[in-house]
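Before the break, one more example. Copy the sequence into your notebook; we will annotate it together after we see the structure.
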Amino acid sequence: MTPAEEVSGFVAELKPLIDQLRELLPEQVADATRGSVQHHKITGSPAPWHPEAGPVLMTIHAGVRQLEQDLRYRVTGHTGERGGSDGNTTAALDAIVKLVYGVPEDVARDARRRLEGWIEQSQEIRDIGESETWIPIRVPRGDLPPGCPYCKTYSLRLATQSGRVACMNAKCTDSNGNRPKGMVDKNYINGDAVVAWADGRTIYYKAAA
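Here is what the structure looks like once it is written out:
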């Protein structure tokens, strides 16, 4: 699957998350002149609002428009403008799906990384109901945790519920140009823990008892 084709899937995954984030915002309780009102919600308004969902939603609204402008400029030579409504965010996402086919592969990979990042931020909101707790990989006292095989930093984190492993370095990519994702497994010969990565690489480490 090409990066451009993957972008379509990430957009489809992001749209319902945006709706869930929006539902977490409170009903109008403040002066609407301090922000824009959409569907009886306050955006850009002072508290009270959801302290996690609000900033993430604003980041996505702004980021989606910026991504569309970046892609549109690459394809047409001009950026175009979008208003601030929820409908315009959806329209921008729909445009991204089309525009990404007209840009070089490295630009499409960057678009994919941005979308994946917004999805991950959304899923980390506890009230979305899809969040996982990410912790450093546990190793015996005195041992160093396993390093990321791609960026060579100690940025690996483990999702306690699913056993997924990810690198938290936003600039890190695997051999396929994707954000590194793996799963913890066990070497049944010697009992060592194994991280099997999506691009086929594996690393071994001694897990804490």
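Helices lie at 3-24, 53-76, 86-99, 105-123. The first strand starts at residue 36 and ends at 38. Try to locate both features in your own notes.
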